[in-house]
Every structure is written in C-alpha cells, then in structure tokens.
C-alpha cells in the first residue's frame, strides 16, 4: 500500500541505486520478470533476500520493537525509539495502544517481537549519516522472534523499512509476514534528490513529505538547492536583508533558522544528510536586492559622441 505513495520521480531515479538482480539466494529465480517475481514486494531490492512460503501473523496488540541485550544503542537512543513508533504506525495504521487485556495471547505462528541490535561500538545514534557510513543490515523474520542486526543506526533504519515492506494483509485482512532472511547494503554511497526552493518556494511540509518518501526508498542525501538568482528564501540572522528583499515574500516564503534546523533533524532521524547549496559568484542575482554593492554593476556602453569632424 505504501508503495503507492512513492512518487514517479523517485521510482525513475532509483532503479539504479541499491540492489543488483544477479545475486539472489534463490538460484532458480534468474529472470527478473516483474509480475512473476516473488520479491516484488520489496523496493529497492535487497542484495540478498530469501522469502519463504511460511506465513506468520502480526498483531498490533502483541507486537513490539525491542532493543537486544548488548545493543550499543537502546532505550536511550531517541533516533531508534522514534523510528520504532513511526514503523509501528506504518505497519498497523496507528500508534501502539497500551496492552489492554492480559488474555490476548499470541498464536503459535505469530511474530511478537522485532529485536534490534546495533553491533558497532559507535552506533552513531547521535551523529549524522555521511558518505562513508555503514548502512548494511541483516534481517531474519521468524516466529515469535524477528531479529535485525546492523553495525550502525543507519543500517537499522533501512532494516526497519524492509521489515515494514514485508508485511501484507491476507485474504481476511490479517497482518501477515512470511518467514524471511535478508542481507543488504547499498550499491551506491550517495543516493540523493535535489530540490530547488529558489525557483519555486517549497513549503516546509512539502520538503518533509519528500524526506519521508526518500526514506521509504532508502535515499540518503537531500541536496537543498536553497537559493539562486530567482529568490533568496534563506533567512540569515546576520544578513536579514537578503531574504527580506530577495525572497519571493519576506515572511511567508522564507526558511527561518528553526525551519532549517527542523529539516536537518527530520532528515537525520531518517538516515538522510542535508547538503545545502549557496552558489557564488554566479547565481547571486537575488542577493543583490538586499545587499548593496555586492554585485558588479553592468556598465552600459557610453553613448557615442559625435566626432569633431562630424560637426
Ligand atoms: C508468502 O507465502 C505465501 C503462502 O504461504 C505465498 O503464496 C507467497 O508467495 C509468499 N510471498 C512471497 C513474497 O514470497
């Protein structure tokens, strides 16, 4: 269902960026025929994936994400805890309810727990993803326990995404996930989208929706082309006149420092780093409106004077 929210742009852009078609564990599947693919439910395709025919159940009243003993990022890692809430919401369509009744027992083939283990001494929970980050993960889905292992939180985020994509509804509408093994890492370290908020101002909620969609596609770089000739929406505390004069509108079409902070943190929580773009010396026409004497004046050719002999 969530795949429907993936924009056509991302679909086009991503075909190249993550898995390869030629190293399935299942040697029998050699033809990448979309309709017949058993792996069509995962996007992008993991490096190695083995989905069995054993269907397991999941229920919003019993299922939970947990931190494995010995994980280097656990209850104190707010990045992981907020990811658990987000993915619970994606999978079950709402926040986790308090356990209401003790008598709701889990069935024999029910997944009640996805245990997450960060294995590297530096989990990077409080850091920012970079071009050299380890984004790999291993996921094993079984009943009652599913296990996700990743060196860093960045890999864990991708593993959670993969786990959520594996969940489907059976013919009675019950949440189901097949017993599965995945081993995955990105094919390319830089998987980015560029948004240009100078030619067209983009409201913050549009930028956040794009980041959300990027995370669903395991993208990791948001290239924020924030200013250019056309407008200067970045609100600088040091040079407020730049956006006051150079933005399409001085109040409604600007990004405040708080907005920028929010975008960077929203992105970080989804394993995405933000690269801002401020060009110079070209592409700066909008800067000249709020900053006198910044741009080189264009010198018009002097009007031709009549030569003495013309008189
Ligand atoms: C999951 O298991 C069901 C039946 O048990 C099977 O029909 C289906 O193809 C499996 N899904 C995938 C993606 O392999």
Order of helices and strands: HEEHEEEHEEEHEHHEH
Approximately how much beta-strand content do the residues carry?
15-25%
Q: What would the CATH topology of the largest domain be?
A: Chitobiase, domain 2
Net shape: elongated
Q: What is the class of the largest domain in the CATH system?
A: Alpha Beta
Alpha-carbon distance between the termini? 84 Å
Question: Count the helices. How many?
Answer: 7
Report the uncertain regions: 1-17, 19-25
Task: Report the C-alpha radius of gyration, rounded.
Answer: 25 Å
CATH structural architecture of the largest domain: 2-Layer Sandwich
Number of domains: 2
Structural category: alpha/beta
| Number of DSSP E strands | 10
Helical residue percent? 10-25%
pLDDT averaged over residues: 88
The CATH homologous superfamily of the largest domain is called Chitobiase/beta-hexosaminidase domain 2-like
Bound molecules: 2-acetamido-2-deoxy-beta-D-glucopyranose
Q: Strand count, sense and closure of the main sheet?
A: 7 strands, mixed
What does this structure look like?
The chain has helices spanning 8-14, 78-92, 153-166, 204-216, 241-246, 257-268, 285-290, and strands at 48-57, 64-67, 113-118, 137-141, 145-150, 168-169, 175-184, 192-196, 221-225, 273-277. It has 311 residues and is of the alpha/beta class. 2-acetamido-2-deoxy-beta-D-glucopyranose (NAG) is lined by residues 38, 41, 51, 53, 55, 178.
Summed up, what is this model?
Its EC number is 3.2.1.52. Helix content is 23%, strand content 19%. It has 311 residues and is an alpha/beta fold.
């Amino acid at each position: 269902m969530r795949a429907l929210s993936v924009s056509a742009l991302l679909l086009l852009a991503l075909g190249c960026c993550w898995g390869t078609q030629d190293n399935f564990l299942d040697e029998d599947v050699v033809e990448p025929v979309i309709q017949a693919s058993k792996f069509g439910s995962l996007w992008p395709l993991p490096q190695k994936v083995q989905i069995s025919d054993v269907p397991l159940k999941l229920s919003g009243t019993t299922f939970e994400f947990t931190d494995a003993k010995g994980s280097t990022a656990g209850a104190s890692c707010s990045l992981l805890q907020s990811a658990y809430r987000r993915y619970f919401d994606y999978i079950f369509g709402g926040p986790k309810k308090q356990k209401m009744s003790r008598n709701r027992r889990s069935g024999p083939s029910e997944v009640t727990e996805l245990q997450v283990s960060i294995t590297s001494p530096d989990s990077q929970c409080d850091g920012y993803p970079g071009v050299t980050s380890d984004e790999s993960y291993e996921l094993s889905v079984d009943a009652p326990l599913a296990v996700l292992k990743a060196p860093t939180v960045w890999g864990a985020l991708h593993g959670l995404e993969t786990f959520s994509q594996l969940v489907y509804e059976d013919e009675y509408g019950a949440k189901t996930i097949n017993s599965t093994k995945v081993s995955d890492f990105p094919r390319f370290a830089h998987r980015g989208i560029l948004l240009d908020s100078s030619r067209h101002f983009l409201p913050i909620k549009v930028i956040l929706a794009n980041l959300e969609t990027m995370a669903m596609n395991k993208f990791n770089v948001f290239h924020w082309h924030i200013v250019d000739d056309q407008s200067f929406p970045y609100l600088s505390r040091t040079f407020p006149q730049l956006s006051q004069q150079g933005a399409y509108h001085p109040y409604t079409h600007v990004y405040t420092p708080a907005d920028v902070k929010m975008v960077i943190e929203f992105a970080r929580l989804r394993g995405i780093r933000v690269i801002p773009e401020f060009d110079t010396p070209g592409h700066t026409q909008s800067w000249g409106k709020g900053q006198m004497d910044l741009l080189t004046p264009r010198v018009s050719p002097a009007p031709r004077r009549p030569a003495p002999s013309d008189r």
